[in-house]
Design brief:
Layout (H helix, E strand, L loop, with lengths): L1 E6 L2 E6 L3 E3 L6 H5 L3 E3 L5 E9 L13 E4 L6 E6 L5 E8 H7 L3 H9 L3 H6 L4 E2 L4 E4 L3 E3 L3 E2 L2 E3 L5 E2 L7 H21 L5 H4 L1 H8 L14
Parallel strand pairs: 3-13
Antiparallel strand pairs: 1-2, 4-11, 5-8, 5-9, 5-10, 6-7, 7-8, 11-14, 12-13
């Protein structure tokens, strides 16, 4: 196993006994091995940008992440402070809502944000700082989390609707869960798929690690 690095016009290959894929939603190994499967139950769509002059509410909670529920199936919005002036705001709905609307990203964002009175008020003086970004069908799971010489951690293994912002926690906890497996595999002289096969089943089912057995179908 190993990785190939590109630096300018040069390429370098680094060999190792084990590769831990912590590439987040890039899911490098999962995509290369064609193991990534979209979750058919979470066909979500997000449109988001950064804004100034967002009303963050009362001072005691102005630095908090705020979640708004929308009157749409699985619809919600986030308000996340980036710094004292910049706020990330995003709308999440089912992809079909966006496709049926016929709107462009900005029109869909503004029309949908207006469906929540509190969010609409907080965005009333907001000024957009960059182009709108869209993400579609972003919930996925790998068919397996490990193979001969590799293991996938955090978002590189699976990703679900981030309404509770659980990604950082699950990334850290999956690393903590996998660490003894990796240590044992390396100490035994090899990191075969059989030595790491428990990772997916045990991690996803383990509530103490933030796992949820509904995230991925077990294989």
């Amino acid at each position: 196993m190993g990785v190939t690095l590109k630096l300018g016009e040069s390429r370098f290959t680094l060999k190792s006994r084990l590769v831990a894929d912590a590439s987040g939603r890039n899911a490098v190994i999962g995509r290369q091995l064609r193991l990534l499967r979209p979750d058919p139950d979470f066909r979500q769509f997000a449109v988001h940008s950064w804004f100034s002059n967002v009303d963050r509410g009362k001072d005691s909670t102005s630095d908090f992440t705020h979640i708004y529920l929308m009157p749409l199936r699985r619809g919600w919005a986030w308000q996340i402070p980036i710094d004292k002036q910049v706020t990330s705001v995003g709308i999440v709905t089912e992809r079909e809502d966006f496709l049926k609307s016929g709107d462009d990203a900005e029109s869909f964002f503004r029309r949908t944000a207006a469906l929540n009175k509190v969010l609409a008020q907080r965005m009333s003086r907001a000024e957009r700082l960059r182009e709108f970004h869209t993400d579609g069908n972003y919930s996925y799971c790998l068919d397996r989390f490990a193979g001969n010489g590799w293991i996938a951690l955090g978002d590189a293994a699976y990703f679900v609707d981030p309404i509770f912002s659980s990604g950082v926690n699950e990334a850290l906890q999956s690393a903590a869960f996998a660490a003894p497996l990796l240590s044992k595999a390396i100490a035994s002289g090899g990191a075969s798929r059989s030595s790491l096969t428990a990772t997916k089943k045990d991690f996803v089912k383990a509530p103490e690690y933030g796992g949820d057995s509904s995230v991925c179908s077990m294989r």
